[in-house]
Structures are given as structure tokens and as C-alpha cells.
Design goal:
Protein name: Cysteine-rich CPXCG
Number of strands: 5
Number of domains: 1
Largest sheet: 3 strands, antiparallel
Helix content: under 10%
């Protein structure tokens, strides 16, 4: 992991609404991962979208575990 590829994002837990900082590693390309909320410990699905051509972070979407199909 390269430090210049880390992007800090202010996000909110989709369960309890707690705000926290999420570090995104865009060197992995587009991917899906899971992280627990630092307050309520609920599992949060994180979908990271990275441009294939430029390698730039295009978007981050958080979702509830019970919303995942």
C-alpha cells in the first residue's frame, strides 16, 4: 500500500449515524470490503470505485449488512 494512494473520507455509519474517518486505499482498484462501525460495531459494506484509466478514486458507497443482496 502506498501512502499517496490513501484517501481520507468523512463518512457516517448507515446504522447509528456516527461520523468517522475512513481511509480508502485506491491502489487496490475498484473493490468491496467490510468495516465495523467504531461506535455500534455493526458491519458496514464499503464499495470503492476507482477509474481504470486514471487510477483516481471516483466514489465510495456505504451500505448496511442487511441491505446487501
Amino acid at each position: 500500500m502506498q501512502e499517496e494512494m490513501l484517501d481520507a473520507r468523512a463518512v457516517n455509519c448507515p446504522y447509528c449515524g456516527t461520523g468517522f474517518e475512513l481511509l480508502i486505499d485506491s491502489s487496490q482498484g475498484s473493490h468491496t470490503t467490510w468495516e465495523d462501525c467504531p461506535r455500534c460495531c455493526a458491519p458496514i459494506q464499503i464499495v470503492v470505485v476507482v477509474s481504470e484509466s486514471s487510477g483516481e478514486l471516483e466514489g465510495v458507497t456505504l451500505g448496511r449488512d442487511d441491505d446487501v443482496v
